Amino acid sequence: MTTPWTPAEFEQQLRSLGRYYHTHHPFQTMMYAGKLNAAQLRGWVANRFYYQVTIPRKDAALLFNCPDREVRRVWIQRILDHDGGPATDHISNGGIEAWLRLGEACGVPREELLDQRHVLPGVRFAVDAYINFVHQADWREGVCSSLTELFAPTAHRQRLQSWPDHYPWIDNAGLQYFRNRLTEAHRDVDHGLALTLQHFTTVEQQQRALQILKFKLDVLWTMLDAMYLAYIQDMPPYFNIEETNHE
Amino acid sequence: MTTPWTPAEFEQQLRSLGRYYHTHHPFQTMMYAGKLNAAQLRGWVANRFYYQVTIPRKDAALLFNCPDREVRRVWIQRILDHDGGPATDHISNGGIEAWLRLGEACGVPREELLDQRHVLPGVRFAVDAYINFVHQADWREGVCSSLTELFAPTAHRQRLQSWPDHYPWIDNAGLQYFRNRLTEAHRDVDHGLALTLQHFTTVEQQQRALQILKFKLDVLWTMLDAMYLAYIQDMPPYFNIEETNHE
Questions:
Q1: How many Å apart are CA A36 and CA A181, to the nearest integer?
Q2: CA dist., res. A221 & res. B116, Å (int)
């Protein structure tokens, strides 16, 4: 390839990576098909919470790296959306609070989410790889790594469609997080995509952008790998270690 | 607990965490029992190589953080052992070269190790968690995180004992890495253990040291989790994604 893609072609290339989105992971397909038991679903909610609480710090790292005030003025909305803003009437007090309520609706007490006792090392390492990447990368690469949001509305819609039928024991009010994200993710991705199309213009840059998006897809997929091994294959860390002689 | 452990008690507590060492992971027990096929063994060799090449950079991060010249003068030997030193007659040109020869003996060409094409994202995230920890931590915490070496000679001995019987197609000369590490790891751990016993003296510090060693055990275990899912369960990343329409 010797000439760069047009913005429309480049966008198409980025969107085509959606075939690797974690909605295709067996853990998620089992979820949408109603094949998870309560413990498995709770494991997902508790592990995914580590991603939720890391995202505002990831976005703060991006703000830290970004010298462009106009970009920061828009990007900061992501932190407000997740943490909740200074105003007490900010929607649902933010995505983290909404996820805590999702946890409660699923039967995971908020203390157990907040103290991260259920977070698997493999999930932690994958999420930390994401925040470390954004911390160390150029801010435009950080923006690009957020573009898995291109594919997120599908995932939220699948959850909203399948959970009430398959998991009727979960209070429907607990699903508010997914409803909120349908609008938020749409708005966020418009901004992130426009910045990416604007800044990655050479052949090398566009190839690099695809690599970055693939890295982020690896993060999401690997999180589910850890959950699959622990909760579907019943192989959580140290599952075979005899503890009785040492406790 | 209100009084700190004596050095001997503290050492015993550290050593007791050896029950979580990755030699107990199903992937390793299969290895020692001769249950891995060639592709699975090669997968391990290629993924573990990412750990090998990261270790000298991890030790360089520790040198960077350490203001104590006497410690640095001893610790630097680890980098020399892995990378090979300036003198051309340094033993086997170091552990990385020895691992490349191990790879060749197992049928993995050195280019395939060096370009890291086989490295699974979950392995990369786990190893990167280790180097990032050492980079960001106090140097004494970095030292403590190296103490899985307490348990390493057992692993190397198990490999030297089981491989020739179970995997006779591997040239015995290729196992030199394990033979070298039997002596090197013994010497390294004496230094790392002495520093840890000397610096972690309060109740809180000793508890923290156990957490750090457990974190490092998590890194090693999680690496094998990723290999187990990919090579034993045949679930490498994106194994179920149809590529034909996109290539």
A1: 23
A2: 19
Please write the tens of the pLDDT for every residue from A170-185.
999 999 999 999 888 8
Q: Is B246 on the interface with A (CB under 8 A)?
A: yes
B124 touches chain A (CB under 8 A): yes
CA distance B145 to B149: 9
Nearest CA in chain B to A127: B125
Please give the structure tokens belonging to residue A192.
């992130």
* C-alpha R_g of chain A: 19
Show the tokens assigned to B139: 């140097």
For B246, the closest of A19, A125, A235 (CB atoms) is A19
SS3 letters across A15-35: HHHHHHCHHHCHHHHHHHCCC
Picking from A119, A222, A233, A240 by the largest number of B CB atoms within 10 A of its own CB, the best residue to mutate is: A222
Question: In 3D, which of B43, B129, B232, B28 has the Cα closest to residue A120?
Answer: B129
Residue whose token pair is 């398959």: A166
Which of B125, B132, B212 would you mutate first to test chain A, the one with the most A CBs within 10 A?
B125
Q: Write down all domains in chain B, each with its CATH number in brackets.
A: 7-233 (1.20.910.10)
User: Looking at this predicted complex, what is its ipTM?
Assistant: 0.91
Q: Are the Cβ atoms of B126 and A128 closer than 8 angstroms?
A: no
CA distance between the termini of chain A: 61
pLDDT digits 0-9 by tens, B98-111:
999 999 999 999 99
What is the reported pTM? 0.94
Please state, in angstroms and rounded to a whole number, the distance separating the CA atoms of residues B198 and B211.
17
The answer to whether the beta carbons of residues B4 and B191 sit under 8 Å apart is: no
What would you report as the CA-atom Rg of chain B, rounded to the nearest whole angstrom? 19
A–B CB contacts, 8 A cutoff, strictly below: 90
Å from A79 to nearest chain B CA? 24
| B201: three-class secondary structure by DSSP | coil
